[in-house]
Design brief:
heterodimer; A: 103 residues; mainly alpha; two-stranded antiparallel ribbon; 5 helices; globular; B: 412 residues; alpha/beta; FAD/NAD(P)-binding domain; 5-stranded parallel beta sheet; 7 helices
Chain lengths: 103, 412
């Protein structure tokens, strides 16, 4: 566990840099975390992040396929938005826990 | 008469029918099983067919042999569940009323979900081993194959028996070594996961094992399509991996009947309370085995442990008590690693597979996360245990809840 400074706020993150408390999240914090991975967030990115945050709140299991069926973006598009780790990065920027995907 | 209806007569449904039939007063309760297929497959045996260790006859028996004599059996396809009316509709237009329903319709492979998978090369150089047809076709192919690129690819999560692809590449490595052509066979293990397995400590042990056997691992590969002409698999981020023979775990999904009934998630798995094993929508609907969307492995051992918890909660429900038994997600998997050896993992929702020993009265202890001969024998005697004890709902000397006895959790 560690504390990091994003957008002028101190934010609790785990060893992998995922936010511990989703309620601390803001769009500005997301933008700064994304910058660390070299990704500039656009409106489309934020739509995906909102979708993930809502789904996480409802306790849904998050998979790439689930996001691909969201109507916001297809799987190919999701890879283009978050190159190198569509679900890994999008959940990190959305301030939610890293999805376990499977056991 | 009160009615219990069980949908699906596979491992989970058969175990539950046996448990309930033994416990309930036959004057008061009527138990009915519905399944569209008459053959029971010993699915853990499919893995051994491609290498000629088992044949088809080793893994098939009639389902009817394992249902108790007093249980009504209907061989018919299910159309949908109408939860508000406590009714199940069958595709022949008839319907069945129930007081309590058990959904045990499992998971199915869906090769049709991946473009190109069932193209020209299907069962010529592309095989699954999650169906008896695929496993037998692969056995025939391997007999005359002279070597090349063997690619094992997992399409999507979750899938049935998460250790089977690892076992497959280990057995393939031993098989081609035995045939004297190991130097001509290049084995690659392709997975959407970040490593060989889902949990860190087991991944470390299994990655080492695959590395020792000179099996390459390609992680974080999410399969988009198969190009039959070029013989490559393609990921969504446009990585291509060439193959001479592709063995595939197709996309797994629950029954379409679940979707028609409005009870499932987007993979058609029933939304289930992970502790009580009740449907999240209807109190008198219970879910057992692969059909449930609970966050643990889709495997027979899970269905077996969950069956004990479900039995308790159904008895609670029959007598108007709250569902006090709680499932912990316990899974126990033998991992066949070739050369007469095997490893064993034991874990649940909260505890990842740990090294140590697994106590089993009379036979064990087995080594956890260790590659030993006794673990292999455990796997081989399991087929007998499956047909004679497990399916018939008899007691096994393993607790339904995971135990920490023998596990070491202070390793670096």
């Amino acid at each position: 566990m560690a504390t990091k400074n994003y957008a002028g706020k101190s934010v609790e993150v785990n060893d992998e840099g995922y936010m511990v408390d989703p309620s601390q999240w803001s769009k500005e914090i997301a933008a700064e975390i994304a910058k660390e991975e070299g990704i500039e967030l656009t409106d489309k990115h934020y739509e995906v992040l909102e979708f993930l945050r809502n789904a996480n709140e409802k306790g849904e299991t998050l998979t790439i396929r689930r996001v691909g069926k969201s109507g916001i973006v297809d799987i190919k598009g999701l890879y283009q938005l978050f190159p190198g780790g569509p679900l890994k990065f999008s959940s990190k920027f959305a301030g939610i826990p890293k999805p376990a995907s499977c056991v | 008469m009160k009615k219990i209806l069980i949908l699906g007569g596979g491992t989970a449904g058969t175990m539950m029918a046996n448990k309930l039939y033994k416990a309930l007063d036959r004057q008061e309760w009527e138990i009915t099983i519905v399944d569209q297929h008459k053959t029971h497959y010993y699915q853990p045996g499919f893995l051994f067919i491609p290498f000629g260790i088992y044949n088809k006859s080793d893994v098939v028996k009639p389902k009817g042999d394992f249902f108790p004599a007093g249980v009504k059996v209907i061989y018919q396809e299910i159309d949908r569940i109408e939860g508000e009316e406590n009714r199940v509709h069958l595709t022949d237009g008839s319907s069945l009323k129930y007081d309590f329903l058990v959904i045990a319709t499992g998971t199915q492979t869906r090769p049709d979900e991946t473009p190109g998978l069932q193209g020209e090369e299907w069962y010529k150089s592309i095989f699954d081993f999650y169906t008896v047809e695929g496993a037998v076709a692969l056995q025939r192919f391997f007999k005359t194959w002279e070597g090349g690129k063997l690619v094992m690819c997992i399409s999507e999560l979750p899938f049935k028996c998460p250790v089977a692809p690892i076992e497959f590449v280990c057995l393939a490595e031993a098989y081609f070594t035995g045939k004297g052509i190991r130097d001509k066979v290049d084995i690659t293990f392709v997975t959407p996961l970040a490593g060989a397995f889902t949990k860190p400590i087991a991944t470390k042990m299994l990655s080492q094992l695959l590395d020792d056997k000179n099996i390459k691992v390609v992680p974080e590969f999410y399969l988009e399509s198969v190009d039959n002409e070029k013989k490559v698999i393609k990921s969504y981020d446009e990585v291509e991996i060439p193959f001479d023979v592709l063995t595939i775990v197709p996309v797994n999904m629950g029954s379409e009947m679940i979707e028609r009934s409005g009870l499932g998630d987007d993979m058609n798995y029933v939304e289930t309370d992970k502790e009580t094993l009740q449907s999240k929508k209807f109190e008198n609907i219970f879910v057992l085995g692969d059909a449930a969307n609970i966050p643990t492995s889709k495997a027979g051992s899970v269905a077996h442990f969950a069956a004990e918890i479900l039995f308790e909660n159904m008895m609670n429900a029959f007598e108007n008590r709250p569902p006090t038994a709680k499932f912990d997600g316990h899974a126990n998997c033998y991992i066949e690693t070739g050369y007469g050896k095997g490893a064993l993992i034991d874990f649940n929702y909260d505890t990842e597979p740990l090294p140590g020993t697994f106590p089993l009265p009379g036979i064990g202890p087995f080594g956890l996360l260790k590659n030993t001969k006794i673990n292999h024998y455990g796997k081989m005697i399991f087929r007998w245990i499956y047909w004679h004890i497990l399916l018939r709902g008899k007691e096994m000397p393993i607790e339904a809840h995971m135990t920490m006895a023998g596990k070491k959790n202070n390793i670096d």
